[in-house]
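Justification of resources, computational component.

The compute hours requested in this renewal are based largely on the per-chain cost of generating structure records like the one below. Each record pairs the submitted sequence with a full C-alpha cell output. That output is archived, and it is also reused by downstream analysis tasks.
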Amino acid sequence: MSVVVTGASGQYGRLAARRLLARIPAAELILTTRTPGDLAEFAQRGVDVRRADFDEPETLRTAFAGAERLLLISTTSVGRRVRQHSHAVDAAKAAGVRHVVYTSFVGTDSSSAALVLVDHRGTEDALRRSGLAWTFLRDSQYADAIADVIAPTALATGRWRAAAGDGLIAPVAREDCVDCAVAVLTGSGHENTAYDITGPQLLSYRQAAELVAEVAGRPVDYEVISDGELYEVFDALGVPRCADEASGAQIPWSSDDMVSFERAIRDGELAVRSEHVRELLGRPPRSLRDLLAGRDYSAGARRSTSSEHGPAGGAEGCSP
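The structure output for this chain reads:
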C-alpha cells in the first residue's frame, strides 16, 4: 500500500506524515507540497517528496503517480477550493489512485449557504462523480483555533465578540482529526463512508468563553454582535470581504467566509456531535477543556506550550 498526502508542509500534513511513518515504511509514503524544500526532514528519512500545486493541474498527475490511497487535505483558498480540489480528483483518477480520503466539514450534507460548506459540498460531489472510492472526514471546528487564536485575544481584551449567538458546535482537536485520517488510510472497510469527526461536547461560544475564563483565571465577557458588526471587525483587521479579493492576498480568507460560518453556527447548521472518533480510534476525543488546560495563558503568553499546536486559521478553523 502506498499513500500520498497533499499539502504536506502544513500543520495537518506534517502531523499526518509523522503518524503515517509510525505505521508504514517510508518507501510507501509520498508527500506533496508547493515547496518541497520545506519537507527535507522527511526526504532524509526516505520519503518521496514531490512538488504539486492545485493551481497548476499539470503538476498533479505526476505527483500522485504510484499511490493507491490519497489524503486530500482541503486547501485554505475558500471560494476557490472546488476548482482546486477538482483538479486533484481528476489527477488522482488519471494516476491510478483507488481511494481518496478527504478532509471535509460537518454540516456539509445540509443546504447551508455558508461558504465553507458550499466549498466542501462541491468537492464531495466531485468525488462521488469520479468513480473513485472515497471517505469524507467531516471535521468540526478545531478546538485548537479556540485555544490558540481566539482565547489569547479574548483574554488580552477581556471580551469575545461573535455573531454566532448561542448556536452550538463540537470543537475537535486537530490531532484527533489527523489520527482519524491515519486510521482510515491504513485500515480497511472505510470506502464510500462519511464520518463526522467531532469533539465530545456541543458548546456555544458563550460556554467556550466561560471555559477560557475558568482555565485562565481571568474574566472574558461574551458579546453577541450582528453580522454587520462582525464585518466591521474584520474590515478593521484588513481582511478582504470576498473570496475573489482574498485570492493571492496575504490573508487567504474572506470576511464573507467567516461571517457566513458564524451565521451557520447561530442557525444550528453545525450542531453536529458523533461517536465516530471513538469508533475509529478506540478512545474518546479530547475536549476543549483538555486543550485549554495544556496552554500557557500567563501574561504575554500567546502560543501553545505544545509544539504540535500552532494557530489554526480560517473561519472554520480547519486549515491545514
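Confidence is low (pLDDT under 50) at residues 301-320. The chain is about 40% helix and 15% strand.
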